[in-house]
Amino acid sequence: MKLHRTIRLFLLATLTFLLVSACARNGSHNTVSHSLQPSPSECRIVKHANGETCVPYHPQRVVVLDTSPLDAVLALGVKPVGSPELTTFKSYPAAQISGIEIVGDETQPNLEKILLLKPDLILTTRYAPKIIYDKLSQIAPAVMAPSGDVAWKDDLIIYAEALGKTEAAEQLLNDYQKRIKEFQFQMGDRLKHTKVSVVVAVSQYVRIYLQDSFLSSVIRDTGLPRPPAQEQEGLAKEISLETLSIADGDVMFVMVANSKDSALREVQRHLLWSQLNAVRQGRVYAVNYDTWIAQRNIGGANRILNDLFKYLVEESR
User: What is the reported pLDDT for 204?
Assistant: First the structure.
């Protein structure tokens, strides 16, 4: 125990020294320090949401601090050395995530653990508080993507540029667009006449998803229309069970965490549920919550497309 305590104190002291030293050189603790970044001859400049950062040409030890960069780097064939404890983390195949260290929460990452991992690149999104970003950038070059949601394609390109995998990202996006066109072709005339509702049951109410959410951007790419209440700006909106009719559509995707979702069963017992058109037509489909909500990049987008193909094309034959 004394040994562990000694190591912990050493790490804390080292981190404190690095942060204080960097801040002293810059004259302010809010100024981003690049003292631990590689020299200009060993790195390239990447423009991102928080300015410009010089990143190594071939980063080997990447830490991600949100589901968006986690999903993106896995799709690009890179396994990060560290990731926050995210609900979506465990929904990936074990082979993809085995060996990735947990580094705290995405909004309050454990700087001590990140320092111990010796990263040469940190990827995050605009959801990271500036003070956290400043501290991260004093540990290793940090790149912040601008969106994390609806503009996930732009985020992918930024992550890929930081990793030196721009061509791979462009290929992933080209393949995604080909799948979109194939989906549209197979849907034919039904495409414009299939209103897609996406909801999650939360005990005494239902949450509907609006145009500024990640999942809505994927549905919009396909050309599928949404019910009027889900064409609004914003991420999501909670509605009471008494107004359940505005969540109706030609089809309804209900996001669930598992097959024993008690909140969904409670909503299904409500009188208005059985009166929904999608319910009467037998076109309510349970889909994975982590995929549709949390895996907010190219991997998640393709898995949403998988569900759209499965339920709107294959099961309609």
Answer: 81
